[in-house]
Design brief:
CATH superfamily of chain A: ACP-like
CATH class of one domain in chain B: Alpha Beta
Structural class of chain B: alpha/beta
Low-confidence stretches of chain B: none
Mean pLDDT of chain B: 92
CATH topology of one domain in chain B: Rossmann fold
Largest interface: A-B, 30 and 36 residues
Mean pLDDT of chain A: 86
Largest sheet of chain B: 8 strands, mixed
Helix content of chain B: 25-40%
Oligomer: heterodimer
Number of strands of chain B: 27
CATH topology of chain A: Non-ribosomal Peptide Synthetase Peptidyl Carrier Protein, Chain A
Radius of gyration of chain B: 23 Å
Radius of gyration of chain A: 12 Å
Number of domains of chain A: 1
């Protein structure tokens, strides 16, 4: 899980070209939106594409998105859980 | 006039069109006559046929009449893509009143200025945005506020004494006595839409678009594409109707053709997640979008992107150049091309389109639409026409061009000279008649398809108590085209951190204008006349 979180932080910073942020600075509980990374809807779509492309996990509904794109931890947990389910 | 671009026209596109002398809402009545039972729009699994749409439009028009809205009055729409927008738009134009088309992102002083500048008598909005309207209403002449209540938020609103009580859209439509169209005679020469666009100083200005302008614009785009067998196909309406691109390519083309508008509002961030499911469910024939959306969707794994994009026959991109890789990826996945277009609020929508369906050269904005003339003129005086390949200001002329800026003679005479609209954009034309944008003359930043004027951000930043001076510039961004960087000089002896200023920005400007990065400098470089040296600021921002 820690490795996945570390990897996600690096990918998010790279994918979204977050100029003011380095992956090490990001806390696991960093929110994606209000008061956190301050992402917009296009950023969200970019992350959805990255998660699908790199982890084979699709988040194509707002019901799931609202639960998953809360903090870096919630995203990592969902990826870990969904990947595990798929591989069983 | 030499028109080298005419040889690029596809066989189905006439060089010139005949424009019927009709108001915009004739599109709706004609489609109701032909296809009353076609689905007009779908919103959250709720569907309206064209007949149902027209009935509600008429009811709302009568409700507005009862409230005193008359021909020529301005009615502001502060709405996301929703049935309410469609009902209100057509109700207002059927009365011969004028739609003041406002972005839901504007707030505070900017909103007050738009309402005052237009002289809006009424505002139609959602309960979600009502607080913002009431925050400034006392500074405006707005007499009527109509809310579509989605969440019942109006119940908890504490209103000051003397402000108009909100009226509920649902109640007004339900209590309107008749579903017959209003009797108002509307001339094609009447103003239909005031399309707000900010100036480089942040002062709002409205392009005054007549029925004739808008009808011409829609017919030009339709003839360009020439699809005649679409039936009741779906059009994905994600681009906001409050932008001319969305108003034309999503709303009005759909109503003209009898297409089904699949409305995707963007009230909050999570709404974008419905996009993929919507593409899969409704398999739209047309999807107008901005480059940032295309690049984000095309970043999906190929098999997923292919599945979602393959039904789209008309993939349009406008607002900013689409990167080459996105063109290539789309073609690889679907066998079709994304067709780029160029337009402005002042031109009702598009003036240029890449040939459909074959597309144009990468990096080009295409060629002028039928009956549209375009040329490149010297950027100093605007009087001398440039030769092929030479860079100058793009000027355009055609039936879709605005009458002028609302109540602003000075700006109008500067932008419209001898019938030519001076776009402010630097461009060149090649030997074959294809046009290429070089840069915006007025330092416009285009991020995710939104036009952002540096002045809009700088004005807000300079009001911060710790800020002495500020400059905003655009830097390249792989997804959004450009991202905003704010360069700030603090007042002597004060300290501030970037998070504090970013939070201030979030509280005082719409999300799409938020700086992606902040850079502190002791001074903002300015020339002797006090003008910001943006090239220098940009170079520093690029080093971030």
């Amino acid at each position: 899980m820690n490795e996945l979180l570390k990897e996600l932080k690096r990918k998010i910073v790279e994918e979204l070209q977050l100029k003011e942020v380095s992956p090490d600075q990001l806390a696991d509980a960093t929110p994606f939106f209000d008061g956190g990374l301050g992402l917009d809807s296009v950023d969200l779509l970019v992350l959805v594409a990255m998660v699908d492309r790199d982890y084979g996990v699709q988040i194509f509904s707002r019901e799931v998105g609202e639960k998953v794109f809360v903090t870096l931890s919630t995203l990592a947990e969902y990826i870990a859980k969904t990947r595990k389910t798929r591989s069983v | 006039m030499n028109k080298p671009w005419l040889k690029q026209y596809e066989a189905h596109v006439p060089h010139s069109l005949t424009y019927p002398e009709v108001p915009i809402h004739r599109f709706l009545s004609d489609t109701v006559d032909r296809h009353p039972d076609y689905v007009a729009m779908t919103f959250n699994e709720i569907h309206f046929t064209y007949n149902e749409l027209n009935e509600r439009v008429n009811r709302f028009a009568h409700a507005l009449l009862k409230l005193g809205v008359e021909k020529g009055d301005r009615v502001a729409l502060l709405l996301v893509n929703s049935p309410t927008y469609v009902f209100a738009f057509f109700a207002v134009v059927k009365l011969g009143a004028v739609v003041v088309n406002l972005s839901v992102g504007i707030q505070g002083e900017e909103l007050a200025r738009c309402l005052n500048d237009s002289g809006a008598k009424a505002v139609v909005t959602l309960d979600l945005f009502a607080q913002g309207v009431y925050a400034v209403i006392k500074k405006t002449g707005v007499k009527t506020v109509i809310l579509h209540s989605v969440f019942g938020l109006e119940k908890g609103m504490a209103l000051d004494r003397g402000v108009p009580q909100p009226l509920l859209f649902q109640d007004l439509v339900a209590s309107a006595g008749t579903a017959q169209g209003p009797a108002t005679r509307v001339s094609p020469e009447d103003v239909a839409v005031l399309q707000y666009t900010s100036g480089s100083t942040g002062a709002p200005k409205a392009a005054s678009l007549t029925h004739k302008n808008v009808v011409a614009s829609v017919l030009q785009s339709d003839s360009w594409v020439g699809i005649s067998d679409g039936g009741n196909a779906a059009v994905l309406c994600l681009i906001p109707f409050f932008h001319v691109f969305g108003m034309s390519a999503c709303l009005l083309i759909s109503v003209l053709k009898g297409y089904r508008m699949v409305l995707l509002p963007r009230i909050d961030l999570m709404d974008i997640l419905s996009l993929m499911e919507t593409l899969k469910t409704y398999r739209p024939i047309s999807f107008p979008a901005v480059p940032s959306l295309w690049t984000a969707i095309l970043s999906l794994p190929p098999e997923v992107a292919r599945e979602h994009l393959s039904p789209i026959r008309m993939a349009t991109s406008g607002g900013a150049p689409l990167p080459q890789w996105a063109h290539e990826r789309f073609e690889e996945l679907t066998g079709r091309r994304i067709v780029e277009a160029y337009g402005l609020s002042e031109a009702s929508s598009a003036t240029h389109f890449a040939p459909y369906p074959r597309g144009g050269p990468i990096g080009s904005i295409g060629v002028p639409l039928p009956d549209t003339e375009a040329k490149i003129v010297d950027r100093e005086t605007g009087n001398t026409e440039c030769g092929a390949g030479e860079i100058g200001e793009l000027v355009v002329k055609g039936p879709q061009i605005m009458q002028g800026y609302w109540n602003n003679e000075a700006l109008t005479s500067s932008a419209l000279r001898k019938g030519w609209l001076h776009t402010g954009d630097l461009a060149r034309m090649d030997q074959d008649g294809f046009f290429y944008l070089i840069e915006r003359k007025d330092d416009l930043i285009i991020s995710s398809g939104f036009n952002i004027y540096p002045g809009e951000i700088e004005e807000v930043l300079r009001k911060h108590p710790k800020v002495k001076d500020a400059a905003a510039v655009g830097v390249p961004d792989r997804i959004k085209g450009q991202a905003v960087v704010a360069v700030i000089a603090l007042k002597p002896g004060v300290e501030a951190d970037k998070q504090e200023l970013l939070k201030y920005c979030k509280d005082n400007m719409p999300d799409y204008r938020l700086p992606r990065a902040i850079l502190f400098k002791e001074e903002i470089p300015r020339d002797p006349a006090g003008k910001i040296l943006r090239r220098m600021v940009r170079l520093e921002a690029l080093d971030l």
